[in-house]
Each structure stands twice: as C-alpha cells, then as structure tokens.
Amino acid sequence: MPRYIAPTKDIQFLLHDVLNVSEAEIPGYADLEADFTGAILEEAGKLASEVLQPLNTTGDVEGCTLENGVVRTPTGFKDAFEQMKAGGWSGIDFPEEYGGQNLPQVVSSAVGEFFSAANQAFTMYQGLTHGAASAILAHGSEDQKQTYLPKMVACDWTGTMNLTEPHCGTDLGMMRTKAEPQDDGSYSVTGQKIFISAGEHDLADNIIHLVLAKIPGGPDGIKGVSLFIVPKFLVNEDGSLGARNGVSCGKLEEKMGIHGNATCVMNYDGAKGWLLGEEHKGMRAMFTMMNEARLGVGMQGLAQADAAYQNAVDYAKDRLQGRDVTGAKNPDGPADPIIVHPDVRRALMDQKSFAEGARAFILWGATLIDKAHRAGDKDADGLVSLMTPVIKGFLTDQGYDMTVKAQQIYGGHGYIEEWGMSQYTRDARIAMIYEGANGVQALDLVGRKLAQDGGKHVMAFFDLVKNFIKENGGSDDAYDKEFLEPLKAASKDLQAAGMYFMQNGMSNPNNALSGSNDFMHMFGHVCLGLMWAQIGKAAKAALAEGTGDTEFFETKLATGRYYMARQLPATALHLTRIQSGADTVMALDAANF
Amino acid sequence: MPRYIAPTKDIQFLLHDVLNVSEAEIPGYADLEADFTGAILEEAGKLASEVLQPLNTTGDVEGCTLENGVVRTPTGFKDAFEQMKAGGWSGIDFPEEYGGQNLPQVVSSAVGEFFSAANQAFTMYQGLTHGAASAILAHGSEDQKQTYLPKMVACDWTGTMNLTEPHCGTDLGMMRTKAEPQDDGSYSVTGQKIFISAGEHDLADNIIHLVLAKIPGGPDGIKGVSLFIVPKFLVNEDGSLGARNGVSCGKLEEKMGIHGNATCVMNYDGAKGWLLGEEHKGMRAMFTMMNEARLGVGMQGLAQADAAYQNAVDYAKDRLQGRDVTGAKNPDGPADPIIVHPDVRRALMDQKSFAEGARAFILWGATLIDKAHRAGDKDADGLVSLMTPVIKGFLTDQGYDMTVKAQQIYGGHGYIEEWGMSQYTRDARIAMIYEGANGVQALDLVGRKLAQDGGKHVMAFFDLVKNFIKENGGSDDAYDKEFLEPLKAASKDLQAAGMYFMQNGMSNPNNALSGSNDFMHMFGHVCLGLMWAQIGKAAKAALAEGTGDTEFFETKLATGRYYMARQLPATALHLTRIQSGADTVMALDAANF
C-alpha cells in the first residue's frame, strides 16, 4: 500500500525563503509568518496522510455505485468528509462572512496539494464545491449568496459544474440544454449533461448544480449561453430543504481512474433553476474563476507526481537487485538497493526536480492570483492569465509522465494493482483532459494569451527572467554557469519561438498553431527553470548564512543543477519543431490519415 | 467500440518495395512473392479484425477468474483460440517436421503485429507457447522435441516461461526455486514463481512450463541456474496425458491491463521436471530466443500504437468541434471535424509517422534474424543483437506514448472505458516492463552491446547509415534536404554520444550508464530515420515509375517529412543530456531523495 507524507518543509522553504510571503505587499500576507503557515501545513498534512491517503486505494477498488438513483461513495469517504469539514478546510479561502477563513490562495494551494496528492478522487468533491461557490460569490445576487454560500463554504452542501453534453465539450456553443423562463422568475431547465464530477453522492444533504443552458430566443452559439443554479433539493425561504428538483443521475461512467469520484450523466427534466449572473453571459460567469480552477488542476499533476515519487523512492531504496557497477553498496546483502543504478536515479531525479520546481511554480502562480484579487494588480492578473494554460497543460502532461516513471521503478510490481502505482497513473491521466484538454490550453496560450493586451504580458515575463539573470549574475561563477546560463539559453529559445509565431503566424495561423503544444511545453520549462534559479539563489543564501539544515539546501542546489542540465535543454527541441512550421503537420488530406 | 483493420497494404509495400524480400539471398525468401505474402496477410488480417478484435473489450471487462485452481478465460477466447489453431497460425514459423510451415520471421512478425494489435492479451497465450517451444527446439533432446513440439506447435498444448520470483526479477541469480535430482533422471521442482503469463487457463489440454531453478550444490548466483520442463499433466510414453503434476496456480494478479491474459502466481511443490539443455546453463537456454522475443515485445508497442491510432483517426474525422481557423471545412454542419485543428494533426502525425516507421524497423529486424538463422550470417546476428534492446525499449516507450496521444484525441471520451481508448494505454503499458524492463534494455545496450566484438556492430550500423546517405544523395535536392540531411545530423549526434561514452565511461562507468536511456532513444530515432529515408526512396521510385497508388506514395513521403522535421531532431536533446554526464544524476545520497 502506498504512503504519503506531506512536503511541509519544502512548502515552508518556498513560502518563506523563496517567495518571502510575509514581506509581500499583498493584503493578508503580513499574517503569513512561518509559525502560522507551519501550523496550518502540519494540520493539513496530518489529515492528508492519516485520513485521506488510507482511503485512496479503497476509493479506487470500490468505486461509486448507483442504485435507484442513489449514488454511494466508497467506504470511509463520508466519515473523512466530515473530518475535512470539521477542520474548516472547505472554507479556508472564503470570506469570513460566509464562514470561511479568508486565507490567501497561496495557502489554499499549498494545502490543496496535500489533499489532492493523498486522494484526488475524494478531494474533487470539495474542489467542485469550491468552484461552484466561487462562481456564486462572484456573480450571485445577495439573496443567492445568503442562501447558498454558508452551506457550501461549510461543505454541508456540495456543488457541481455542468458544461459538457454528449456532442459538445470544447465547443459549448453547440449546447442543447434549454432554460425556459417561468412566471415566478425561475427557469425550467431541460437537457442532458455528461462527465459531471460529484454530480450525485451521499456526502452532503444537498447538491447545488451550476448548469450552462440556452434561453430560447437568445443569440446563437456561445453567446447565447447562460448559467443557472439548479439545486438537487429546492431550498425553502427559511433555508430548510424542500421538494426534490427535476434533476437526477442517469448513469455513472466507468473510467480509467478517479474511481472514488462519481462521474455522472445528469438528466435535467424541467428542473427549477435560477439565473446566476446575466442572461447570455454564462460563459463569462463560468470562467471568472478559470485561473484558480486551472491552477488547481495543474496542481493535481504535481500532486500525483509527488505522491508517486515518494513511493518510488521507498521502493528504490528497499528493492535489492543487482550491484552498483562502481562497487557494492550493500556488500553483506544479496544485492544492492536499486537506487544505486544510474538509470533508476535518472528517473527519480526527473521526478524530484519536476515536483519541487512545479510546487514553486504553483505557489508563485497563487501569489500572482492573490496580487490580482487582493491588491487589484492588473499586471499580476495579466501575467497569471498568460501562464494559466502553461500551469494547467505543462504540469499535467509532465505530472502524468512522472507517475509513469514512478510506476516503472517497480518493474512488474508497478503493473499489478497490489502496489498502488497503477492508480497514480490512472488518476493523473484525467488532469490532462478535464478543465480544458491540454490541446485547448496550448491553443489558448498561442492563439489568445500571447497577443493579449498587445503582447504586454509575455514581454513582462521575458523582462522578469532577464532582470532576474541580470540582478543575480556575476558574483558566483558556479551559479552563473549552472543556473543562469541555462535559464538564459532557454528563455532565448522561447523568445525565438514567439518571434517565429509573429513572423509566420500572420500569413498562416497554422504556423503558430502547429507549434502550440511545443510552445506550451517550452514555456513550462522556462518557468520551472526560473523557479530553480530562484530556489538555487535562496539555497545559496541560506548556506552562506550557515544556519538551518545544510543538507536540505545542498540537496536543493543539486536537484536544481539536474533540472538545468537535463530538463531545461528540451526548449531547443521544441524550438526546432516550431520552426519547422505547419507544412509537414498540415500536408495530408484527412482521407490519407 | 474500437475497430481494427490490418495494415496489409503497408506491409506489402514494406516487404516488396522497401525490403525487396523475394530478391534477398536468404533461404526461404525466394518464395515470398507479393501474391504469396498478400494471401497470408489477408487471411491473418481477417482473423485479427473479425475474430480477435471483437473479443478485445470482452477480455478487458471480464478478465480471467480463478476458482478451485481452475482458471477461466473470457467468453469467446476458447473458440477464437480454436480458429487461430485451425488457420495454422500457431506454427507458422516452426519446422515442418513438427507441424509448422517453416515461414521466415519476417512473415511471422508481420502477422504477429495484426494479432497483437487486435487483441494483445489473447495473442500472448500463443506467444508464450511460441517462446517455450522455441527453447525446446533449440535445446531439447530428440525425445523432448518429439514429446512436446508437435502438440505445442499446434497449440494443443500451450507453454509458459517461469523466471520471476517475488524477490527477484532482473537479478535472477537470487532465485530460490530448487530442482532436486531424482533417481529416475527427473528433478523435483519446488518454489514459487510470479507474473507467469498464461500460467493456467482453459484453452489447452496441457501446459508446458519452462522453469528456471537451482540444482542444490551448484554454483552461486546466475551461474547456478538451470532450465526445466515441467508439464501441468505428465505425459505418458504413448503421448497421452497422465497424472496431474505438482504445479498449481495460487493466485491471479489484478493488473492495470491485459486482463484477458491470466497472470499467475505459480506454486511448484515437488513438481516433476526434466532438465532442458545443460545443467547450470539455464539462462543461456532461456535467452537463446531473446532477440525474437524482444522483437516481439517491441512489435507490441507498435501494434497497440497503430490500433489506437486507427481509432483516433476515426474519431478525429467524426467529432465536430470548433472551426478550422483558416476557414470552415464543414460549413453546412454545426462545426468542423477536429481533424482540421493543427494540434490534433500534430498528435495524429506523431502516431502515424511512428507506427509506419516502427513497422519498417520491426520487419527489417526480422530480416536480420532470418539472415542470421537461415543464412548463418554472423554480422546480421551481431547487428540485430545490438538493435534488440532498441527495438524493445524504444518501440514500447514510444508506443505507449502514442496510445496516450490517441486517447487524448477523444477528450473526456478517452478517459471513460466505453470508447475503449483507455484499454490501449493500459495494455501497452506492460510492454515497457516485461521481457526485461526498459531500463534494463538501455543497460544492455550501453553496458554490453555497444562494446560487443570490439564495437564492430555499432560501427557496422554507422557505416550502413553513411553508405545509404552516400549512395542515395546528390540526385534530388528535396530528398537530400528533407530526408538525408536530417538523418546525417541525427546519426552524427548518435556517434557523438558513443564517443562521449568511450571517452568518459572508462574512468567512470556512471558517465555512460547515466545516459543509457537517452542513448537507447536516440538510437531508436536514428533507426526510424533510416527507415523513413528508405521508405522515402522507395516511394520516390514508385512515383517516378508512375504506376500504382500515387496518393499512397505521396502520403508516405509527407509522413516521412514529418518524422524527419519533428521527431528525428530529438537526438540533439538526448545528446545534450548524455554529455552533461553523471554528476547531476549521482549527486544525492540515497537519504536525500
């Protein structure tokens, strides 16, 4: 059975030595002293390791069941959900007036990683609720907020997001679900939604569905889509639960993974709904919280990778097989632990350097979101919007690959379900798909975000890298050579790719779009390169001070060197592919595939 | 439900236009005229598409069951197995004296791809039998051959390979299974073997287990391992079945995929066995057929990739979502098929160019095996031995990645089991692990094969590439630029990597072994680059002739250009990683992971 230990020490290092959160001029950040965040992380880590992780296999093996319209979650989920609620974790970043703790995104992202790593399927029940509540908070009327938010912030009621229909996912303009206005100001919602995570279950008294639908007579396509609140049970004026609404779960999907989460076909049959936000502005309302939601999914890529990595390390230290080619390391035993073998180390270093770099990236992204929301910083908002598809697409693609590498360390034992490594890959796989498939992320990045506000945000990103190199270079040859030079080279590759798009994408947009996936990945590498340069700087400073855990800081430097030497150079390959243009990609008639 | 159509046309093109098999001076090849191979491929394709493919999902969903020691295969497997036998497919490449058809490896590899693509779990029952029968053919006494081969060649009896034990897989020297000599010349075999594919089932009257075990008092470690024939039912002198032997299936493993194949824990409890080959030379006997076996697993990587690709193409042509950015392609419909989108094409071209290049690589490898076995060509044997870890490791790593890309085309529909795309990834995953995990393949390549016979074979490979470029360059600028120049650059990268190993591996072998995985992959890319250069040459020649299917040949050239422009340049990244050496890989103490 796998284990999971929350990386609290690493997060503390990132918050206080790298990001220096308590000194940042963002409302609420002054409270984030090391003792304070340490206490939160410790509690969250305990819940993750001791309560959620032990249920991860249970959830995978048992899955959810649907009988007579009732969905049952796996054994133990209900009890764990109550513990999560009792700890106040569901409302950690919501306003105090609705029962939350009003903590910044950077804190909720940190603890979110723990929960997701320990049990992704379980954590999704809370995650979807968070998304739905955020949309109500941003777009709801005062009455809607009072009615739903206290219950949802407490997770007494959970929430869902209903977008996809059988014939449309990415292209929601084709949606068929209808919402017909009623005399009482409500709407009658009819249609079928699929892939609805946490659509029906036994963890909460009520489920608040947010449903995209078209009001008949509205504009065609995506501009005629509105968002509705459709509760499973209608809510009486006094807040008590009334009649069952016309919404039901028609089927549970059999999936590759996240078996513990109920993925539902939801049938709306004249269900009573209330408009959330404005008519025909449903997509805008649904996507207000996009940056946070996609940051959260990118974080899942990191989380599964880290959980899988931790177990792969255990196995590599424990499994005796073969001998170190430079001399036995366990001469009294029948063989050496496989961690002595260079190719096993190569795979583990890939995972370690990814997970720690990705963690920094997520937390940096979270500080930008906080800056945007709490300090009204439009530049921060633009920068994080630019990086959102990178965070989502790059971290989930790479995160998945890392779970595959972790599984590979186990040999045949990784392929059988007994050891739990297969689950990490099967669960991680979904993050590449939902919340906008990664191809759509790449399209969003290259087709929209790059040029946004006249290209201002991507220029700001390049300046940020350039200034970091300038400000931190020249005083330490080893650091310059091992960290700054590779970062500079990678950033140059990324700029060259952007330049290629500018010069060739106007005449033929396919020249840009054929390179979108490569661009997203090279952007991700540059971001992780920047993170490692910052981490390296902080580790050097800490070592110079001579206090603290010297080995921890030395290990950070060594891991950063690995990333810089072995992973960051991938940007050159991506650039080569991008510069080969659209011709080879688009050459074939569809019939010749 | 997925479909599968055997790529008979592509194989015919490779056999007759690229490899020119019927003109090759290899015994048996003169018979391989296009009509002859065409008829075989058509029949095999029919069996694959019509009988095996429809059972692929059944096998995945039902799996195998163990009750009271009896293993039942999924519904329909028994009937399909009889059809496979009736078609004579099980003995296609075995000598006629044992009931086979004595066809070359290049033909059995071609049809093997079809069967494996249609239903990998099913085809393994036959594949394991083939491996066991091959070992008996190579090392058995005349009596053993007469007793077992006719039945095994017909698949009336199936076979297994028993290597792994709970505590050892790669490092078989640690094995504990014992074989104690008995007075009658047999041995009493006791121990436990795990991960035994097709270890127990209901498809055949008898199962012939080949079991590695140690004869007490023999040498320590791997040099004290012998190979034994242990039948499930003892065989009487007249060939009829006698008493049940002391071997049983203790458990079926729950696995990520290949559910239709019974992966057994096999308990040997004083089972009667007979030495196969010489005492203490068990590993040598087991690995005689290594090149073929690993070629077969590499082929599985290709097979799953191609099957997944075929379905991804169907979906991409069918699924309407979004519009072609350069103008609607389906203006009367609600949206364009997603195959118009550059990033979807990019993913499909990755798959197509891999599958077709890999198919050529497999068939080329098979001709080398035929040359070695049928014409006693030692150079061919050396070359294919060098490339065997590349075929196995590169094609299964890449093949798996391609199934993931195929699944991604489906968006959320790829994650639910209903569409069958998850099965391709779950089934393809095992090929990276069994028959020597891919890390072990990379180690075999860099640690052993490169230097074999004084480096003669790798030099021969480089000469082969160099000569091809020399002989085919200079007459067609476009071909030179699009095919030969990229191949030359990639081959130069590969040579530089080999040079790095030579210069830095002596002082510290970790400098070589830290780059083993990258070297295996870059070697694979150069091989596929060579294949595409050959395919391109053949397609050009056919177009110049002006006969045949012009569109087919144009498509070949376009697909080759894609590989050359977008995939082959990966060699440069691998070289960069290799040249960064072992320091960053080996820096950490095990405790600091």
**Structural class by SSE content of chain A:** alpha+beta
How does the major sheet of chain A shape up?
Answer: 7 strands, mixed
The average pLDDT value of chain A, as a whole number, equals 97
- Strand percentage of chain A lies at 5-15%
How far is it from the N-terminal to the C-terminal residue of chain A, by CA? 44 Å
Radius of gyration of chain A: 24 Å
Largest interface chains and counts: A-B, 95 and 95 residues
Q: State the total count of DSSP E strands of chain A.
A: 11
The oligomeric status of these chains comes to: homodimer
Rough outline of chain A: globular
Share in helix of chain A: 55-70%
Given the structure, what is the number of helices of chain A? 21
Low-confidence stretches of chain A: none
Quick overview:
With 593 residues, chain A is an alpha+beta fold. Helices cover 57% and strands 12% of the residues of chain A.
Task: Give an overview in words.
2 copies of one chain form a homodimer. By secondary structure, chain A is of the alpha+beta class. Among the domains of chain A are: 132 residues, Acyl-CoA dehydrogenase/oxidase, N-terminal domain (Butyryl-Coa Dehydrogenase, subunit A, domain 1); 125 residues, Butyryl-CoA Dehydrogenase, subunit A, domain 2, CATH 2.40.110; 134 residues. In chain A, the strands form 3 sheets. In chain A, strands 3, 4, 5, 6, 7, 10 and 11 form a 7-stranded mixed β-sheet that branches. The longest helix of chain A is centred in the middle third of the chain and has 34 residues.
